[in-house]
Amino acid sequence: MRTEITNQAELRDLLGTPLQRTLDKDSQAFLPEHRAWLAASPFCLVATSDANGACDVSPKGDPAGFAHVVDDTTVAIPERPGNKRADGFANILENPHVGLIFVVPGRGDTLRINGRATLLADAPYADQMVVKGHRPVVILEVAVEQIFFHCSKAFLRSKLWDPETWHPDAVPSRAQIAKSLERPNDSLEEIEAYYGPAYAEKLYTS
C-alpha cells in the first residue's frame, strides 16, 4: 500500500526526534576542523534549484584543497572547462541558495555547507586557484549560512570505499553510453579514442 507523508508530525512519527547534540553541531563560520577537511577534500557535490524549484546536483573536483577558504564565512570553488551546460550556474542566477557536500576519499563522514552563492568572472584570490597553469573559468563563491559534519552511515551501508564491492563493468562503458545516447552517428572506435588518454590530458583546456 502506498502511504504518503504529508506533514511534519507524520514524518517525525516515523523518524523520531534528533538528539540535541545533533542540532547543536551546526556552525555559521569555519572552525579548524572544517578548514582541515576542505584542505583534504578533492571532490564535492553542488546542489542548486531554479526559481521554480527544479533541481540540479553537479560534481566538482580538483586536487585536494581546491575549495578556497576566503575568510571565516566564505568559500570559493573553481570551475574548469566542461560540457558548457552550466545547469547549476543558471539556477544560481535565479536562486542563490546552494548546498555543498565535501568528500574525503576513504572517509565515510562528509562536510556539508549550505549558503548563498555568487558567480564571479574573477576574484583577488583567483591566482591561488590555478591548476596546471590554468585559472578557473568561473568562480562559485558561497557565503556560508550553515556548516556541519554528517555521519558515515550512508557510506557504510553502501560499502562505497570497499574495493570488493566495485564492479565498474556492470554497466556499459562511458564510450558505449555516449554512442547510444549522445553520439549515435560516430563510431564506437572514435568515441573510445575521444575518452582515451587524450581526454585526461585536456582536463584544464577543453
Keywords:
single chain, 206 residues, alpha+beta, Pnp Oxidase, Chain A, 2 domains, seven-stranded antiparallel sheet, 8 helices, 7 strands, 27% strand
Q: Secondary-structure element order, as H and E?
A: HHHEEEEHEEEHHHH
Count of the domains: 2
C-alpha geometry:
globular
Structural class: alpha+beta
CATH topology of the largest domain, by name, is Pnp Oxidase, Chain A
Helix content: 25-40%
Spatial ordering of strands, largest sheet: 2-1-5-6-7-4-3
Q: What is the CATH domain class of the largest domain?
A: Mainly Beta
Instruction: Please state the CA-atom Rg, rounded to the nearest Å.
Output: 20 Å
| First-last Cα distance | 50 Å
The total strand number stands at 7
Second rung of CATH, namely the architecture of the largest domain = Roll
Q: Percent of residues in beta strands?
A: 25-35%
CATH superfamily heading of the largest domain: Electron Transport, Fmn-binding Protein, Chain A
Uncertain segments of ≥5 residues (pLDDT<50)?
A: none
Mean pLDDT: 96
- Counted by DSSP, the helix tally is 8
How is the main sheet built?
A: 7 strands, antiparallel
Quick structural summary:
The protein has 206 residues and is α+β, with helices and mostly antiparallel strands. 27% of the residues lie in helices and 27% in strands.
What does this structure look like?
The chain has two domains: 20-157, Pnp Oxidase, Chain A (Roll); 167-201, no CATH class. The protein has helices at 8-15, 20-24, 32-40, 87-94, 153-158, 174-181, 188-194, 197-201; strands at 43-49, 55-61, 68-71, 74-79, 97-103, 110-120, 138-150. The protein is globular. It has eight helices and seven strands. α6 crosses α7. The chain is 27% helix and 27% strand. β1 and β2 (55-61) form a beta hairpin. A seven-stranded antiparallel beta sheet has the order 2-1-5-6-7-4-3, with helices on one face. The protein is of the alpha+beta class.
